[in-house]
Design a protein that fits this description.
- By secondary structure, the protein is α+β, with helices and mostly antiparallel strands.
- The chain folds into 2 domains: about 90 residues, Orthogonal Bundle (Arc Repressor Mutant, subunit A); about 50 residues, Ferric-uptake regulator, C-terminal dimerisarion domain (Dna Ligase, domain 1, 2-Layer Sandwich).
- A 3-stranded antiparallel sheet has the order 1-3-2.
- The protein is globular and about 50 Å long.
- The N and C termini lie far apart (about 40 Å).
- Bound molecules: zinc ion (3 copies).
- The site of one zinc ion has 7 residues, from loops.
């Protein structure tokens, strides 16, 4: 955790921001809720336990900042309620997501089918791909 907090501190400093206790608290919640894909309100509810003074607006702005700095990534759901998760920084492949249209459940997919496609796109379009995001929408086991 301390390693990630220090990385955040560096990234913030580069952009002229400070690591405030609130920003740290929000990051810690997102890191420790790995795999849960929390939305803003859920993050707020957990952060509030350790930082009772924090407001929803601060949590919201912090999330926007972390997203802008590429520290977290956003999942866009049809219900208009974005979910967030910590971005793996060490070049490890980022998993893909299955999103249920009905209950908004998010399931992580670790297999990657895109490596071949990536090579093909890179050579056909003369484009260097640094990242990709894939979300499959449909019905989960419980809802289908
Ligand atoms: Zn479902
Ligand atoms: Zn995920
Ligand atoms: Zn992939």
């Amino acid at each position: 955790m301390e390693k990630f907090v220090n990385e955040l501190k560096e990234k913030l400093k580069e952009k002229g921001y400070k690591l405030t206790p609130q920003r740290r608290a929000v990051l810690e919640v997102i890191i420790s809720s790995e795999g849960r894909h929390l939305n803003t309100e859920e993050i707020y509810d957990i952060v509030k336990k350790n930082c009772p003074d924090i407001g929803l607006a601060t949590v919201y702005r912090t999330i926007q900042l972390l997203d802008k700095l590429d520290i977290i990534s956003t999942l866009y759901l049809d219900d208009g309620c974005n979910r967030y998760e910590f971005n793996i920084q060490d070049g490890e492949h980022h998993h893909h997501h299955l999103i249920c249209d009905n209950c908004s459940k998010v399931i992580e997919v670790k297999i990657d089918l895109l490596e071949k496609l990536k090579d093909e796109i890179q050579s056909n379009y003369n484009f260097v791909i640094t990242d990709h995001k894939v979300q499959f929408y449909g019905k989960c086991e419980d809802c289908k």
